[in-house]
Write the structure tokens for this entry.
Amino acid sequence: MQFCARCYSKWPVASTPLDWCPRCGGVLLAPSAKDTPAEERNFRWVARGSRLGGAGPRAASGPATPTPHYTQTPHWGLHDSPPIASAQPTPRADLLADRAGRLLMITAAVFVIAAVAEVGRYAILVYNRTRLVDQWLVYGSDAAVWIAGVAAPALGLYSAVACSSWLVRTRREYFARTGSRDPRSRWRIWVGCLVPGVNLVMPGVLLTELTAESEPRVRRQVRAWWVAWVVGAGLAVVALLWRRADSLQAMADGVLFYAWTDLVAAGIAVLTLKLIRAIEGRTLAGRQRAVHRLVPATGPARDVIEPIRPLTSTAKDSVAP
């Protein structure tokens, strides 16, 4: 057999050895038996290296060592690994958008706590009409009302910023799937969602554009959320104006009104979370929503059980006793 030095193919020697490979044109090595061990062949595989940059003084790297070589034909190949994409840092706005659902749940819980604190203060006021109240109870009620009254609006504002980031990202992804770009810039969306007065109209418009091709159920949720958002903003304005009341009865009624306002704010936070989950195709708990499809029937309706019909007189006579 003759081995090709280029494609490693084997060629039997008929009468005289060949010089060139009939397949690739490479040099054919000297003939040898087919089953000749590698150490007994008249040729061997040698790994050769090349130095780039032309001839030059050889760097002193210690004593000369034998050239690396193989004792048999190598069967390995180069492993071309796919390039590893460099990890791009996630934008801060996208990180904030990922926290929108969690922030809305925390905001709803804090608003409920604020409502409970207001109800507790109202109960103390009613009790104080005929009896004295311990000073520690008054201080505790004031602390609960002030802490919840500051934390709830702060979390509500933080949640509004996170939801605005979510809206920017979701609109960008939605228009990217359609092969276009969002006609509204990122800053216009931020301004429309966060500037007082403007945020009563623009969020509903932006969500309506986002869900124009969604299910009717999702579009109804957008309209319901829009109405609830405007009503909640109106209640918040009335609650701020109510703080200017100077009579004791108006102040007491204001405490109860603040409790209702906090409960409405908690409901709006839950409704916002539900709308976000619906647009993402998930349930309120965050699980993937099961899709139900109706398949049209391909044939006429057929009764599974044959209906029972009364026997005629002729059929009765033919029945054996």
User: Anything to note?
Assistant: The chain has a mean pLDDT of 82. Helices lie at 92-98, 100-127, 135-177, 186-194, 202-210, 216-242, 248-279, 313-318. The two ends are 97 Å apart (CA to CA).
